[in-house]
Amino acid sequence: MNKLLSALSVLILALLAAGCASDSEKFNGMRVGTPQFEEYAGVYRLYPAADLRRGDCPKGYKPVYISHYGRHGSRYLIYDSQYVQVADVLKKAYEDGKLTAFGKDVHDRYMSIYPQLKGRADELTQIGMKQPRVIAKRMYHSYPEIFGADPVIEAYTTMTGRTMLTMAGFCESLKEEDPELNIFQEATILNIRKLNPYHAAANVIPEEERASFKGPKATWLEGYKAYMEEVIDPSAFISRLFTDAEYVSEICVPSEFMRNLRYVAIHLQGTDQCSTSFTDVFTDEELAVLWECDNITYYMEKGHGFNSSRCPIYSYHMLEALIEDAEKALASDSPTVHLRFGHDGCMIALFALMDVEGWNAHAETFAEIKNVFANWRTPMAANFQMVFYRGGAGNDVLMRFYLNEEPYPLPLEEVGNMFYRWSDFKQVYMDKVRWAAGYLARSR
């Protein structure tokens, strides 16, 4: 009977995690979850289905501490202006009789969902509400040694509505599994350095330097715009929707309209409007190029970039806090869970600093970036969990790093299958913290 209940529980969790993807195995002809679709979706990729098997616990060891950092769940687009621009262009062209038959179909499709999109920029979607709840349930059932032993649980979030709702849903899901759990939750700007040191309120990056890698004065922006003009050709795309290319150039910047409609197309899978698709407006080649250009911005703003990799160095504040919190938790007699909720850019920068595979390679040109860096590795609800195990001779501590709930390698000497000694992790990364702090101090 217990095995049957366990199997049903796994099935229910899998269906919840699938969200809209469970309604249709394919999204506009592309199988959700394939590398092709993930590349096109970028950071709007749906959270991947996770394997519930967390075993491999070393013999004689038991889990005692979980250190977690999670991106918020699926959200709407960041800027409402993106929704508005697509609507304005399609509406005007429709009224002026400048749409092809296919363009009219796209217009009708978009206008049917536009009222549900406008004004919701930056908000968590209903699917985004579900994702952290499912991840929390898996965490709870994966570590009964921790959650069944009256653990200390602390949860912290950045000061945005989407991250606060993500934290609330995660903690509420844990409480549904065990109402007796005592969970401390906090949302205050005082924690911003250890959650998002790139926020202006963290006051760790000089404004002049921040402007050099993000914003309209970024040093790489001029070259990036030139590269976009080189690789993005909107002419075929425009001809599918409009009868007059010159007219389109008069009412908008064609490439900007193309990029905004692409953003709409890829993010709909994470919304209640996921049954409506616009990826048929683009060819595979166009979607690939548009993803590439989007991917570049993440590499330049939070990855290594071309400017001596200074940007990721500021994430040492996050790394130092992870180590300090772990030391305190491991010194306690109680099992402990630390939950942190923030943003994909913070994860990208931290992984680059930590030299984690997939974020540690460097590119020297915009064209090379797609070969060394992929922003779809941090999908909506992306998270990493460091799980600590105590046991063995001398009450040793081992740890394992999970990315999106799958074991992931670190550039450390392994003890078994992707297990690492906490002493090695602490030594290597505290040296990294000290180097980063010293480097930044000397270079100002």
Account of the protein in words:
With 444 residues, this protein is an alpha/beta fold. The protein has a domain at 29-75 and 124-214 and 284-442: Rossmann fold (3-Layer(aba) Sandwich). It contains 19 helices and 10 strands. The chain has helices at residues 2-18, 35-41, 80-95, 101-117, 126-142, 144-147, 161-177, 192-195, 207-213, 221-231, 235-241, 245-251, 254-267, 284-301, 310-313, 316-331, 344-353, 366-372, 422-442, and strands at residues 26-27, 30-31, 61-71, 152-157, 183-187, 336-342, 383-391, 396-403, 406-407, 419-421. Strands 3, 4, 5, 6, 7, 8, 9 and 10 form an 8-stranded mixed beta sheet that branches. A hairpin with a 4-residue loop joins strand 7 (383-391) and strand 8 (396-403). Helix 3 (80-95) packs antiparallel against helix 4 (101-117). The radius of gyration is 23 Å and the shape is globular. The N and C termini lie far apart (65 Å).
